[in-house]
Every structure is written in structure tokens, then in C-alpha cells.
From TrEMBL:
The keyword Nucleotide-binding does not apply. Residues 103-288 form the AB hydrolase-1 domain. Coiled coil: none annotated. This is AB hydrolase-1 domain-containing protein.
Length: 601
């Protein structure tokens, strides 16, 4: 099993040790001729890959050109504009023609998450989660236009010594910088910071957003950026489905993937076979560049850290105090101390400062994946009190910039699609510094974490300049979809609160909302056999959970007696396998989502 999980936790040093082992797993997408029909070739051992022309014009796939922009954008309302080539991957079905149920598409969120990476890492785990009948489906994912898989490319460019590491997946790709060295310089000059880090944080972020918006617009000489919007990705999903010979979409999308799924349902209500969206954002808020509602439950998620730590005790929670209030106070004191005195960290894997922004970002990141990250977060906070920032640094650092600069070869390529999609989708934001400051202050009434995604998205979009007039603008709703949507939320999702899921549900009469009773981003953040049971019923049998269903989580925060209860002992082998598979998926997809959050500058 190829594990592509948690790329950002790997240091350069660790990475180099894994290179030899992974050599056989790399796959050169550029060697594939884009096709109008799905012609599959073996890739990544057990998978099959193809590149799909979304339109009937042949793309001249020019490697050199891929270093920055592809020649020809794709416009569904004007076929003459050109094509996009989507990298599609599937874990093939293995049943007779009569039993075959077509493609089940997965989108891992972001936006900017690579479906290819995600499926390579998780395909077999998805099969385990869906159960024995999952072999009736082709489990399929794709790199949305503009987006780029990272991890295999990372390996490829390091491994193969290609003098042109322009081995790209889907095209066109959103890339703003001439070289990755230029991007690294940009990131160093305009680091992702809390809007509350200092009095000039908002003016600085606003200024950088305008600069980045200008760079993106000026270098978009092929004029592709305006075509990367979510409505076009929804159209692409219909194309992919039809290439498999099916008329209606079967889809599982998490986080931003919920915006994609709901947008599809609004645009093509009669093409819905199954749409399960998990970690549901308010799509209308998305299309108005106002994510304030998405942090409705973020502070509640932080409260679960305090409550869980107090309940777990000092052995399991290193940041323990007898009451939740005392733990909250302890964190406030630590935060105030770090604000005035950042901690330098120097480890074999890298170096930097644990400052206010990194501390806050570490906290927020842990809220996405509490069942996995809270113990480490607690250890990191306790160590930080003693002047040791290495644990927090290691869980939040960005990967080091790898560049064989002497040979002038680039580090792994990176796409800039997140801001292009997020802002290109939305209404045109023209906020002044005063206006974004007011916007942030208003959002901060909803959550103390408005300093990140809510505020930074608004600021980024204030600098964005590339829009397509005829893009889909909502409302994200449909009176009658050809099959009801299943929506899934948790009780304390830091980025996709129940309020957003309820708003989305109201737009799709007949849809059902399932609530998983625990904190975390998407249901994947915690093991729940109950939730998975409903997933299977929905996809395999078309049965929706009863309205108002709440599923318990089969774990406790900080691992407190999670595996010593009688309930746990009663699990069957199949259930154990499902829980193990869920952990593989969450360990893989959630770090990518939190990492993409930081691309919003
Ligand atoms: C399908 O499953 C059968 C039985 O497990 C196996 O022998 C065969 O190799 C599989 N075929 C494919 C294409 O995976
Ligand atoms: C953003 O949405 C919030 C509600 O979620 C609302 O209070 C606020 O006025 C909105 N801001 C703008 C600029 O539309
Ligand atoms: C860099 O260049 C040197 C000298 O030409 C060569 O020996 C070395 O192998 C090159 N490194 C890579 C990664 O290509
Ligand atoms: C900004 O940081 C200060 C100092 O840590 C804190 O008191 C304040 O509540 C923060 N503001 C917001 C809106 O979270
Ligand atoms: C909803 O759509 C289905 C099929 O797409 C159709 O049979 C049904 O009559 C529609 N219901 C309403 C209320 O429009
Ligand atoms: C859970 O099980 C593992 C190994 O089976 C054991 O090492 C660990 O101590 C157990 N944890 C608890 C909280 O019982």
C-alpha cells in the first residue's frame, strides 16, 4: 500500500530515506496522451489512470509550457477556447457487467486538494469503509483543473533527476511564479500570519493580496485562471461520469468538496444519483467571499480541547489542569507570553520561530483532527511553556524549500489554484483596508479564529482581479434533485458548522442531514461505525438516515479508555478493519486540508 499521507509532516531528511522505496510507485502522467474516451493504463501498481479531454479539441501537451501556463483554457460556453486535460484515476470495479454500478467520484476538498494523490493514498481504505460491495464501483478521483498533485511529483523530481521536472498532472495548472525559488522568496516575504498578530497585520496582508492578485493577473497571459471556477469543475464531473457511460453522478466530497457537490446539484438537479457531502460549507457564503458563518463552531471545538483535557487527566493530557477553565487560562497566559517572546526552534528537520501566528495556527489545525492531534498539541503546549517549541514547530511547519540551486533545478512544483478558485468563484470584492478591518472585526464576534480563513480569504479576494462574467453565482439550491442529497456534519466542526449544513439542507428539499456527535472537520475526523453504516446504506441501497439522526463516535478525546471498554472488545474483524481504514483516510486527507488553508494568502 502506497502511503502518501501527511506530506507536510515529512522533513526533507525523512523524505530522502523513503525515495528509493517509492521509486517504483511514480507514474509519469505526461507520457499519457489525453484521450476523448477513457483509455486506461496501469499506474501506481493497483490503479488505472487516464487523461480525459474535457472537450473535443486535442490539446498539444507541451512539457515546456507546463512550467507556467497551458496554452489553451477551457470554456464550456465556447468550445473554440481550447481544452483542459484532467488526470483521472480509478480503483477499478471487479464484478460482472450486470452488477457494475459505475464510477463513484471523490473530491478531497481544498480547493486545491489532489484527487489523484488522495485516491492513491486511500483507495483501498475507501473500499474497506464501503464494504464488500464496493467492488461494484469504480472508485474514481481526479485532479481538478488548475490543481496539481504534489507528493508523487515531489518524489519524481527528486528521484529522476529530470532536468525538466515539469511532470504535471491535469492541465491547465494555476501557477503564478516563474520558479519555485521565486515562490519561496514570496512566501518568505509575505508569510501567512494571523490578522491579529500585530497592528499592521491587516494592512500588510491587504497589500500583499493586491500584489499577488496583480502578479497572477499579469502572468495569466494564456487567460486560464478565469476558467478554474467550481461551476466548471462540476461540469467536468458530469463529463467524467458520462465517459464511464453513466448519466448521473455518484459522488462523495468533503470540506470544499461539499461546495463542489452542492454546486453540481444546483446546476444539474436531474443528474444526481448519489451526492454525499461531508463537512458541509455554506456554499452561498462561499460564493459571496464571506466565510463568517463557517467559524460558528470553531470556539466550541476549542472548548472540547479544554473539556477533554480536564476529563482525560494529566497522564493523557500534558497540558492538564483540574478544570477546563484553568486549562483555558493556562493557554491564554502562554499565548500572551509567546506574543511578547517568540521561541526559536532549531531541529535537524528545519528551523524557525514559534510565534503568535504559528501557535494560533497549530491550535486551529488541531481542531480539524482532534481525536488524533489533541495529545500532541497538549504536549507541544506544555513544552512551549518550558521554552521548547520543537513539538509545535514540527506539527505546523511548512515543508522546507528543496532546491538544487547550484544546478538551477527547481524544487517540487506547487500550484496556486486555491486563491484562484476561491476568489474567482466569488463576487468581486473591492474592500479597502478599513473595510476588511471592519469585516474581520465583525467576523471575530463569531470566533476568535476569524484571524485565519475567514479574514484571510476576504483579504485575498480584495486583491483578486480575474473573474469570468458568466460564472455560476448561486443560489446553491434546487427544488427537486433526482435523488436526495445526504449531508453530514459534526457537532463542533471548526470550518463547517452545523449552521452551514442546515442552510445548505434548506436549499435542497428532501435532503437529509446526519450529525456525528463529536468535534472535528468532516465525519472522517473521528471513527464512527454508525456514520459509516449510513454511508453504506446511502450509496449501496439508496436509503437515507431518518431525519435528525445523530451518530456517536467510537473514540474518546485523548484516547481516554478508548480501547478498554466492553463495547470496543465486541468489535468484529470487519468493524476493526473499517476503523483502521478510516484512520488511514483521516490521517491523509485532513492535513492536506489544513495545509491548503494556509495557501489563502
Ligand atoms: C477480480 O477478483 C478475482 C477474485 O478475487 C481475482 O481473481 C481477479 O484477479 C480480480 N480481477 C481484477 C481485474 O482485479
Ligand atoms: C458576512 O456574513 C455575516 C453573517 O455570517 C454577516 O453578519 C456580515 O454582515 C456579512 N458581511 C458582509 C460584508 O457581507
Ligand atoms: C548537480 O550538478 C553536479 C555537477 O554537474 C552533478 O554532479 C550532480 O549530480 C547534479 N545534481 C543533480 C541532482 O542533478
Ligand atoms: C487579538 O489578540 C489579543 C491579544 O492576544 C486578544 O486579547 C484579542 O482578543 C484578539 N482579538 C481577537 C479578535 O481575537
Ligand atoms: C422531481 O423529479 C422527479 C424525477 O427527476 C420527478 O419524477 C418528480 O415528479 C419531481 N417532483 C417534483 C415535485 O417536481
Ligand atoms: C490501548 O491498547 C494498546 C495496545 O492494545 C495499549 O498499548 C494502550 O495502553 C491501550 N490504551 C488504553 C487507554 O487502554
Amino acid at each position: 500500500m502506497i502511503s502518501l499521507s501527511r506530506p507536510f509532516l515529512f522533513s526533507a531528511i525523512l523524505l530522502s530515506h523513503t525515495l528509493a522505496a517509492r521509486a517504483a510507485d511514480t507514474f509519469l502522467w505526461d507520457r499519457l496522451t489525453p484521450s476523448q474516451d477513457l483509455e486506461w493504463v496501469q499506474c501506481y501498481s493497483t490503479f488505472q489512470c487516464t487523461r480525459l479531454e474535457a472537450r473535443s479539441i486535442n490539446l498539444r501537451h507541451d512539457i515546456k509550457f507546463l512550467k507556467r501556463f497551458v496554452q489553451v483554457p477551457l470554456d464550456y460556453s465556447d468550445p473554440n477556447v481550447g481544452t483542459a486535460a484532467l488526470a483521472v484515476i480509478r480503483l477499478p470495479a471487479n464484478v460482472s457487467e450486470a452488477q457494475y454500478r459505475g464510477p463513484l467520484l471523490f473530491n478531497p476538498g481544498g480547493p486545491g486538494g489532489s484527487g489523484v494523490d488522495s485516491l492513491v493514498a486511500n483507495g483501498p481504505s475507501f473500499q474497506a469503509v464501503l464494504g464488500s460491495q464496493s467492488n461494484q464501483y469504480d472508485i474514481v478521483s481526479f485532479d481538478p483543473r488548475g490543481e496539481l498533485s504534489e507528493y508523487p511529483l515531489h518524489l519524481m523530481s527528486l528521484l529522476s533527476g529530470l532536468d525538466d521536472p515539469g511532470v504535471r498532472y491535469s492541465t491547465p495548472i494555476a501557477v503564478f511564479f516563474e520558479t519555485d525559488a521565486e515562490r519561496a522568496l514570496w512566501n518568505a516575504a509575505a508569510p501567512f500570519a494571523s490578522l491579529n498578530a500585530s497592528s499592521d497585520a491587516i494592512p500588510q496582508a491587504w497589500g500583499h493580496a493586491h500584489l499577488l492578485g496583480a502578479i497572477a493577473a499579469q502572468r495569466d497571459t494564456s487567460q486560464i485562471l478565469k476558467y478554474l471556477t467550481t461551476d466548471n469543475v462540476a461540469r467536468d464531473m458530469l463529463q467524467i461520469t458520462q465517459k464511464f457511460g453513466f448519466e448521473k453522478l455518484q459522488y462523495y466530497g468533503i470540506s470544499y468538496g461539499s461546495v463542489l457537490g452542492a454546486t453540481f446539484a444546483a446546476m444539474f438537479p436531474d443528474k444526481v444519483d448519489r451526492i454525499l457531502i461531508d463537512g458541509v460549507l455554506d456554499s452561498d457564503a462561499w460564493f459571496s467571499a464571506n466565510l463568517t458563518i463557517e467559524v460558528t463552531d470553531t470556539d466550541k471545538a476549542l472548548q472540547t480541547f479544554f473539556d477533554g483535557c480536564a476529563a482525560a487527566g494529566p497522564d493523557l493530557c500534558a497540558f492538564y489542569k483540574p478544570t477546563a477553565v484553568e486549562i483555558a487560562d493556562r493557554l491564554t497566559a502562554l499565548t500572551a507570553s509567546i506574543r511578547t517572546q517568540p521561541i526559536p526552534v532549531l531541529t535537524p528537520a528545519g528551523y524557525g520561530l514559534v510565534d503568535y501566528s504559528l501557535l494560533r495556527l497549530s491550535l486551529l489545525g488541531a481542531l480539524y483532527h482532534p481525536f488524533s492531534l489533541f495529545p500532541t498539541l497538549a504536549r507541544g503546549l506544555a513544552a512551549l511553556e518550558n521554552g521548547d517549541g520543537s513539538i509545535l514547530y514540527s506539527i505546523s511547519q511548512e515543508p522546507a524549500f528543496l532546491c538544487d540551486c547550484a544546478n538551477n533545478t527547481a524544487s517540487p512544483p506547487t500550484d496556486d489554484s486555491t486563491v484562484a478558485i476561491e476568489c474567482g468563484d466569488a463576487i468581486e470584492v473591492t474592500d479597502s483596508i478599513e473595510e476588511v478591518t471592519e469585516f474581520y472585526q465583525n467576523a471575530a464576534k463569531t470566533s476568535q479564529f476569524a484571524e485565519f480563513s475567514v479574514g484571510s480569504t476576504r483579504v485575498s479576494c480584495a486583491g483578486w482581479k480575474v473573474y469570468r462574467e458568466d460564472r455560476f453565482k448561486g443560489p446553491v439550491a434546487a427544488a427537486n434533485t433526482s435523488f436526495p442529497l445526504l449531508l453530514v456534519t459534526t457537532t463542533a466542526d471548526p470550518d463547517a458548522p452545523k449552521a452551514a449544513a442546515l442552510k445548505t439542507q434548506a436549499g435542497f428539499p428532501g435532503s437529509v442531514l446526519l450529525t456525528q456527535d463529536g468535534p472535528g472537520h468532516t465525519s472522517l475526523s473521528a471513527p464512527s461505525l454508525c456514520t459509516i453504516g449510513y454511508f453504506r446504506q446511502y450509496f449501496l441501497n439508496g436509503i437515507l438516515p431518518p431525519p435528525g439522526t445523530v451518530c456517536p463516535v467510537d473514540a474518546t478525546l485523548f484516547g481516554a479508555s478508548a480501547n478498554s471498554t466492553s463495547k470496543r472488545a465486541a468489535l468484529s474483524a470487519d468493524e476493526e478493519e473499517v476503523l483502521a481504514a478510516l484512520k488511514v483516510i483521516s490521517d491523509s486527507v485532513l492535513p492536506v486540508i489544513t495545509r491548503k488553508m494556509r495557501r489563502r494568502n
